[in-house]
Amino acid sequence: MNTLQDSQAGVISSPFHAWLDDWQLKASEEADGNDFNHLTLTAYSGEGASRFGYTLKLAAEGPLVLHGEAGFSQKAANGQGVHVLQPALLADNRRRHPSR
């Protein structure tokens, strides 16, 4: 592997870019690289002539939704958990609400 982005999965915080195999979620190039209000999702599957994929440009329609207590969702009795922030996104002119 020549670079971090040659690996199977990873995240770069600035400009935001997360990937797993042939799936990518990136801050839109038109916006600031740290702007989570405008994201581009690309996904591909298959090889050769059967390769299929799509690109979705996502735009937030409201503030980030904080899950749990102020964005922290405890998962274990010893206090371990995750921080979760999720935007309400608009894709293909249909509103997508995160589950609360």
Automatic annotation (TrEMBL):
Protein name: AttH domain-containing protein
AttH domain residues: 6-81
Upper lineage: Bacteria, Pseudomonadati, Pseudomonadota, Gammaproteobacteria, Oceanospirillales
Entries under Pfam families matching the protein: CrtC
